[in-house]
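Quick entry, no commentary yet.
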Amino acid sequence: MLARELQLREVPTVRQFQIRFEYKGVTFAEFLRLDFYIDDCLLLELKAVERVLPIHKAQLFSYMKLLKAPVGLLINFHETTLKDGIHRLILPGIQTEGYPATFDETEGSGEVSEQKKTKATENRE
């Protein structure tokens, strides 16, 4: 339902990326499935768990570093009051305005290209 609401409001959202990374001389291309990556700056991770564990925040933070997403929200819907289930994470040193998402294969940085984002968005629609 959230995906549909974002689509109706024409909010640029991506839910899947293909990333490349190098490990011990071998380059891998894997899909990274996200709950929501909004407008190249906000990463949403949605949960419905009894309590948020450090591993949940570590997962979100890892995705943020991989995508260079400056802000992440971990939202746990298993709370009596929704505001009690919202955890905000900030990735230090990342600019939010005019941030170009590029992929440098030579460095194996794991950044995502605009072309891949566009393709993922087109596939979603």
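second:
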Amino acid sequence: MSAFSLDPSILEIILGAKSTIDLPKLSVHSREDAIQFIFTYGYDISDYKDSKILWKTHRMAVEILEEEILDVGEELPAKVRNKEELEDITDLLILASYADGSQMQKYACAVLTVMHMIIHLENDLFTSFTDDIQYQILRPIQEHIVMGEKNTSFLGNNHEIELIDFSIKPFKQTKSGVIKLLARDKTVAMTLLDRVGMRFITKSVYDIFRVIKYLVDHHLISFPQTIVGQSKNLICPVDVFIEAQESFIEGASEQENFAKFNEVLSKKIKDWSDKGNELETKNEFTSKDFKFIKFISRRFLKIDRGPDKEPLKFFYPFEVQILDNQTFMENENSEASHKSYKERQRRVARHRLLGF
């Protein structure tokens, strides 16, 4: 019986112990082997269109690496970044298979890894049906956002809840998706759950919970479709909020009750925090000073495919983020800024790709 020769790292990937992203090198040592590797992956390099897609993806990977991940002034070697130097895309796989662990080999692996991520990010349901997905998820909620006088906005056609702001989450570009995938070792393209999302900024903490109640009561979200393990409440523990509601005085005006409630809630949150309690972030890149409430829900979508064809049906996730204005301002003015968050992600992504 011959010795077992399959690379142990490949076994670990197939059996779930390791991610493809963390493979230190390939085992492709000839052009013929590389052609077959690429064909099994999904592309035929003898086909003009497939070849064109791969070179376009290579160019995007180089741009993302040099603009978003590498340190200032750092460049990829010409041998892996320039099409003219490579001559054939298979050369990149052969370079990534060198056993010497050189920087050239590491950079070749880095380019291939980013190409792998781009291909998956740009070949999912969202890319194929962007407009339909956004319309069917966002439109029902947008129809309940009403503009008032002097640029004020409200949730509810009868101005039920005044908002400081309502915004649709900007479409996550491929480059930011790549960095997010690299920065989190358990995340794959299929589990990027926040490609569609919205943010409510309310006048008070109390209004955060009123927004959630409104979304449920008006059937704008289906609470059974909330994805378990993806919710974050970094502003106010639910039990503290429930306890604070006991401060409501029957017969008092709404304004009086609101003022009393906010006073009691602020004190209860402070008392809870002073006891050493802390809301868990579960995100190594989020500063403990960055606070918000968010959850991921799903909507069942139907995509029209034309006459005489059954519509394509699937669930698609979306993120709802809610925070009060005071918390929003503290987030903006603290070390917890988006820029700091992104830089922490970039450093982890760079180290994961290159190991140095």
